[in-house]
Specification:
Layout lengths: L3 E6 L5 E6 L5 H10 L15 H4 L4 H7 L8 E2 L2 H4 L4 H16 L1 H7 L1 H16 L7 E4 L2 H17 L8 E5 L4 H12 L4 E5 L8 H16 L5 E7 L11 H10 L4 E5 L11 H4 L3 E5 L11 E5 L21 H5 L8 H4 L1 H8 L5 H24 L13 E5 L9 H15 L1 E2 L2 E3 L14 E6 L6 H16 L10
Parallel strand pairs: 3-12, 5-6, 5-7, 7-8, 8-9
Antiparallel strand pairs: 1-2, 4-10, 9-10, 11-14, 13-14
Helix pairs in contact: 1-16, 5-6, 8-9, 10-11, 16-18
Bound molecules: pyridoxal-5'-phosphate.
Length: 477
């Protein structure tokens, strides 16, 4: 094997020599630029390299950090539940033991400072004005309940009038839609869904549909009180032009804008000044390497008058959402306390969070294109509308004909082939015939632990099904 070398400039401004071990093909060589780089110790070839500053995590260290993953499974679904490296799990265990060792000391002398440190880390990462704008909660579902609960009170207390509208995407996450039903529809709000095309080809399609929905909301002199906008929709997965949509909301006088970015931090650009929403939530257990479960909810401080409370009321009720959320009764707070440890892990990678994001994006696009080419299908969105996940069309001959086929096929791939990947049903439109168009799209993810073999395993599993003449009807019995 002939090693080859590339010289690159690290973020700290030092040149470093990268040793590429396996320049095999396009995919592999691109993957290897981050999976297989090492600081050179080539006997003085680069004597001035400061190793301590430049020793990024190595491929074998990455493997060790995720050695608890089931090696029999090609896990190309980071999007659903994220991942947590062993160094962060150890840090979490430390916190848990600290509590169990002396709970009172932990409660009086550790917990609140620890949560404050985690909130500060998030504040600077997302460019919020003040740490008070950041609350830590269990997950995006809880964050949505907090925001929507205050919408419900606004209706109940006469601030909003019955029939006033809330706008959300048709592809909003199922659990969040239920929350809108429970808190907004039930309170008298009129919910309007933004229909989005899929496959999608450009931001403009999304913007046009969004404007249309706002127009409907404002018909008959009604007001649009709330817009719920996903930053990255879950299924199908598409990056939404949130900055533009928030700007449109401001122009059109929408009272409140909530961005549901369950997949935000670590996956796409998250800057509160840029985006300009009133509320923004992102899970930290999906793309930020925290254990389940922790998310942040950002609430813009300049916007006075929001009556936000944690749905679990406890001693701190009335002391501000961040403080309320930091004590909602006796429970395990360790996931909220390891945010600095997760950042420490992230900073072992070249370019930190930005580097991870960029490489995940580049590789998932490459893998998506590789799969679409192998199956003769198409991507569900162009690369610029994808972050670290991408939708890939499955061969039409699999005859994915109804929603439930997706879950059955997903289970079949897990059980028979050791591949974990979610699948989306794209119903045929009038005149379209199943078997002649793509009706199923797989959502593939890329995270630092993934290897090219994971995607080859998926490709080969589908190729095998096609070769065997498999159709989803076979799963109907
Ligand atoms: C867009 C979106 N919102 C909300 C959620 C809910 O996240 P959680 O289950 O962590 O609360 C998800 C989960 O995938 C999601 O994709």
């Amino acid at each position: 094997m002939t090693p080859n070398y590339i010289l690159s400039l690290s973020l700290s401004g030092h040149f470093r020599l990268l040793l590429r071990l396996r320049p095999i093909n396009l995919f592999r060589s691109k993957m290897s630029s981050f999976h297989h780089h090492y600081d050179s110790d080539m006997n003085g070839t680069k004597p001035t390299i400061k190793k301590s500053k430049l020793s990024f995590i190595t491929p074998s260290e990455i493997d060790a950090q995720f050695s608890h993953h089931d090696s029999a499974v090609a896990r190309i679904n980071n999007g659903s539940f994220g991942c947590c490296p062993s160094s962060v799990i150890s840090a979490q265990n430390e916190w848990q033991l600290r509590f169990l060792r002396q709970p009172d000391d932990f409660y009086f002398n550790g917990l609140q400072d620890g949560i404050q440190r985690s909130r500060s880390v998030i504040r600077s990462l997302i460019n919020a004005d003040h740490v008070d704008e950041i609350s830590l909660v269990d997950n995006a579902t809880t964050a949505a309940a907090i925001v929507l609960q205050q919408t419900s009170w606004a209706f109940a207390e006469g601030l909003f009038r019955k029939g006033d509208a809330a706008v959300m995407l048709h592809y909003a996450y199922g659990a969040v839609k239920k929350s809108v039903e429970a808190y907004v529809t039930r309170a008298g709000g009129h919910v309007i869904e933004v229909q989005l095309p899929f496959p999608v080809t450009s931001n403009q399609e999304i913007i046009t549909e969004f404007r249309r929905a706002l127009e409907r909301g404002k018909a008959d002199g009604k007001k649009v009180r709330l817009a719920v906008i996903d930053h990255i929709t879950s299924m199908p997965s598409v990056v939404i032009p949130v900055k533009k949509l928030v700007q449109i909301c401001r122009e059109e006088g929408v009272d409140q804008v909530f961005v549901d970015a369950a997949h935000g931090i670590g996956c796409t650009d998250v800057d509160m000044q840029e985006i300009g929403a009133d509320f923004y939530t992102s899970n930290l257990h999906k793309w930020f390497f925290c254990p389940p479960s922790v998310a942040f909810l950002y609430c813009r401080k300049a916007q006075k008058g929001f009556d936000l409370h944690h749905p679990v009321v406890s001693h701190e009720y009335g002391n501000g959402l961040a403080i309320e959320s930091a004590w909602i009764g006796t429970r395990d707070y360790s996931a909220q306390l390891v945010v600095p440890s997760a950042l420490e892990f992230i900073n072992r990678f070249e370019g930190g969070i930005e580097g991870i994001k960029r490489r995940n994006h580049d590789t998932v696009v490459e893998m998506g294109q590789m799969l679409a080419k192998a199956w003769g299908t198409n991507l569900g969105a162009p690369p610029e509308l994808c972050a670290s996940m991408i939708m890939v069309g499955l061969p039409p001959c699999l005859e994915i004909s109804i929603d439930s086929d997706c879950l059955k096929l997903r289970t079949h791939l897990r059980v028979k082939f050791g591949v974990e990947v979610p699948i989306y049903f794209r119903a045929p439109k009038d005149g379209e015939i199943i078997r002649s168009i793509v009706t199923g799209y797989a959502r593939i993810s890329h995270q630092v632990y993934n290897k090219i073999e994971n995607y080859y395993k998926f490709r080969d599993a589908i190729n095998q099904l096609v070769k065997d003449g498999f159709t989803c009807k076979l799963l109907h019995e």
